[in-house]
Backbone:
């Protein structure tokens, strides 16, 4: 397995790659809102143009931008069929057993699939052009205002950053456990439902035990050093936003407002 | 369980979050494992049971997102529903666990688990229906199909999770819920 | 019949940015009943090599042949391989998972097709062989044991299948000197009973004192493959490559540089001792 999983990240030097990760994350959030809000046909056109522009600017291939669309095609088909056949008995072409296919349902199916694909493309661009670590740092920065409403943002940020540091270690350990049990003759798959759980115990129990052992050691070490809460932790400092960053934010906000106005 | 410090609970939550990313990868080698074992549910439910609802909720909210970020799975399209489902697991398992005390650890565990898993699946079924389908019949069909197809996963998790909890207690990595009993 | 590694190569994540070449056109033969020590700097491919031998992953090129059969051939019986080759990883205690010591040790025999009584005998033998009291410990939860006992139980879980070939990856890391001595004695004891031992270790002393043959790897290739006595001959080369030398060998090297006639195949304390006594006598005269 992997040392440090990096998901879909593809390093590069496009204007999109260079945007501040906070702006990218916020921009993704606003674009998805716009995609949910879209109503008239021209609205879809605007979103499509915006996405095409972003993909072109990012230098990522169409294949990357449409990543997992193909993998999810059966899923889209199900969404489409369900909507077509079950949407509403009114104005149905015909009615047979529980099926009531209608043109309204058909349109609905196309609509839902289209929105999901749009949202998928938007997030593919962001996750492919930003390192996971950067996204997490950005997330940390973006949730910090929530402190004001009583959500312990700093503690959450601490938990997230400890979690990320554990990922490669656990990944290696898990692989080691899998190999050790395989060498002892373990078979992790079983046909019978009742035996399925027992079959993975040799894998799952050691993974949790060694992970919790690390949690135990770390918490003892932190408490011994008088660590009580997350305050005083140094957060990653971001460089100030550049012109490009403001410009990008302006565009997505404008598109989102436009979608509201033309509804 | 005897109170653990906030620091310890925070770190256990971090560890469970990391396992939300790592565990599904570990199950890759097993055919069809993802849909049968639902590996990401295990750390979230455990986190709720062991650390309480605020931590369980955080684990459920952040676990799937972290996994998508680091491994590309689950795909973004199914992420929102998954986040809702797992958040309910973490939240409800922690809540019920703090509400009931039958003096038998495994009974507490089973009750909390079953309620959490059923609630989570109902909510997730509704959320899916809401996002991917409009119209009353469509929604009902979605919700029902989701609940039925995920039943085998429930049975498997009912075996796995208490076993892990007892192993952790035996290894003295988490405190026992009741002094010296089942 | 021996283990034959023929032109084996292995690369992790071929074709990605994580690509890392671990083993390159590697050939080696290990005879039955041998005690082989494997050394080399971190990242030189030792763990990869032994995992290929244990059949945990197939080489990208080349073959691993055990008892005349290619272990990665499609019709090769995996179960047989699992029983023939045992592997103890670093910190083997993480593999414990059962509710009792007895069950955990018996785990590897579950699919073996052996009779219940044979399994019970093997389990008892394995637990006693690692120096534990079978009756006292059989029903304990493995998680409630001490660190040293856990490791012994884990090793018993590998021995229970009575492997003909026992592979050990850094087995003595984290043990105290007594635990080390006891463990190394166990390996020589098994070796004397006919088990082929392949031990990876950074500890040159442990290797020099126990192994009959020493293999040194460098960047995924074979650097040295010689009887233990000769493997440590070229001290300058080993030092230049950053490979450890047993203290006895180092002492012999230094003494001979000072003009004392000591054979350069001296690698163990026992062999060094008579010379030290002689030198001591000379000095006191
Ligand atoms: N799971 C892995 N994923 C990627 N690379 C690995 C993995 N394991 C080992 N490597 C790489 O393969 C090479 C050989 O590693 P290894 O066989 O573990 O060496 P050793 O045991 O001698 O330290 C190293 O460069 C190491 O970085
Ligand atoms: Mg190694």
Residues:
């Amino acid at each position: 397995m992997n040392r440090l999983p990096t998901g879909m990240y593809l390093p590069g030097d496009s204007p999109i790659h260079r945007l501040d990760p906070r702006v990218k994350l916020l921009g993704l959030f606003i674009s998805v809102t716009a995609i949910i809000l879209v109503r008239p046909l021209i609205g879809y056109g605007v979103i499509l143009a915006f996405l095409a522009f972003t993909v072109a600017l990012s230098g990522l291939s169409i294949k990357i931008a449409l990543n997992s669309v193909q993998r999810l095609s059966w899923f889209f088909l199900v969404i489409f069929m369900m909507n077509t056949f079950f949407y509403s008995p009114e104005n149905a072409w015909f009615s047979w057993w529980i099926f009531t296919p209608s043109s309204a349902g058909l349109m609905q199916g196309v609509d839902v699939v289209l929105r999901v694909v749009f949202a998928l493309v938007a997030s593919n661009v962001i996750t492919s052009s930003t390192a996971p670590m950067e996204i997490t740092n950005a997330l940390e920065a973006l949730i910090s205002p929530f402190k004001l409403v009583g959500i312990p943002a700093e503690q959450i940020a601490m938990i997230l950053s400890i979690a990320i540091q554990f990922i490669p270690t656990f990944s290696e350990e898990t692989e080691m456990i899998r190999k050790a049990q395989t060498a002892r003759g373990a078979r992790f798959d079983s046909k019978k439902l009742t035996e399925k759980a027992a079959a993975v115990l040799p894998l799952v129990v050691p993974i949790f035990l060694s992970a919790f052992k690390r949690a135990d050691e770390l918490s003892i070490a932190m408490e011994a050093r008088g660590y009580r809460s997350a305050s005083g932790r140094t957060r990653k400092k971001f460089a100030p936003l550049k012109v490009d960053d403001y410009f990008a934010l302006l565009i997505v906000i404008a598109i989102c407002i436009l979608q509201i106005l033309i509804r | 369980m005897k109170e653990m410090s906030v620091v310890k609970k925070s770190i256990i939550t971090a560890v469970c979050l990391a396992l939300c990313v790592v565990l599904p990868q570990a199950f890759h080698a097993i055919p069809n494992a993802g849909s049968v074992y639902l590996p990401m549910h295990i750390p979230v439910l455990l986190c709720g049971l062991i650390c309480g609802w605020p931590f369980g909720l955080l684990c459920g909210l952040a676990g799937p997102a972290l996994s998508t970020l680091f491994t590309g799975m689950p795909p973004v399209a199914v992420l929102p529903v998954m986040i809702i489902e797992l958040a309910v697991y973490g939240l409800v398992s922690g809540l019920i666990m703090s509400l009931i005390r039958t003096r038998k650890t495994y009974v507490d565990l089973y009750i909390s688990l079953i309620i959490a898993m059923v609630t989570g699946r109902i909510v997730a079924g509704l959320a899916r229906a809401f996002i991917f389908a409009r119209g009353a019949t469509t929604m009902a069909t979605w919700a029902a199909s989701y609940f039925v197809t995920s039943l085998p996963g429930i049975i498997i998790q009912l075996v796995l999770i208490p076993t892990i909890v007892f192993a952790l207690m035996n290894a003295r990595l988490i405190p026992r819920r009741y002094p010296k009993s089942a | 019949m021996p283990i034959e590694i023929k032109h084996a190569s292995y690369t992790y994540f071929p074709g990605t940015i994580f690509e890392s070449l671990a083993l390159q056109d590697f050939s080696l033969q290990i005879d039955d009943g041998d005690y082989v020590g494997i050394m080399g700097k971190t990242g030189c491919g030792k763990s990869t090599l032994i995992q290929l031998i244990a059949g945990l992953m197939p080489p990208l090129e080349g073959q691993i042949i055990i008892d005349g059969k290619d272990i990665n051939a499609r019709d090769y019986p995996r179960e047989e391989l699992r029983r023939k080759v045992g592997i103890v990883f670093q910190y083997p205690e993480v593999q414990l998972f059962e509710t009792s010591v007895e069950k955990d040790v018996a785990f590897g025999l579950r699919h073996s097709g052996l009779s219940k009584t044979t399994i019970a005998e093997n389990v008892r033998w394995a637990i006693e062989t690692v120096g534990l009291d079978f009756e006292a410990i059989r029903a304990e939860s493995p998680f409630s044991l001490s660190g040293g006992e856990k490791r012994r139980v884990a090793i018993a879980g590998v021995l229970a299948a009575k492997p003909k070939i026992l592979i050990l990856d850094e087995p003595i890391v984290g043990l105290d000197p007594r635990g080390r001595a006891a463990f190394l004695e166990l390996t020589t004891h098994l070796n004397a009973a006919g088990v082929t031992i392949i031990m990876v270790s950074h500890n040159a002393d442990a290797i020099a004192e126990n192994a009959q043959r020493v293999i040194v790897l460098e960047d995924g290739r074979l650097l040295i493959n010689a009887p233990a006595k000769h493997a440590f001959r070229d001290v300058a080369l080993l030092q230049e490559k950053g490979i450890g030398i047993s203290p006895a060998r180092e002492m012999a090297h230094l003494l001979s540089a000072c003009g004392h006639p000591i054979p350069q195949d001296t690698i163990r304390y026992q062999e060094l001792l008579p010379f030290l006594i002689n030198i001591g006598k000379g000095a006191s005269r």
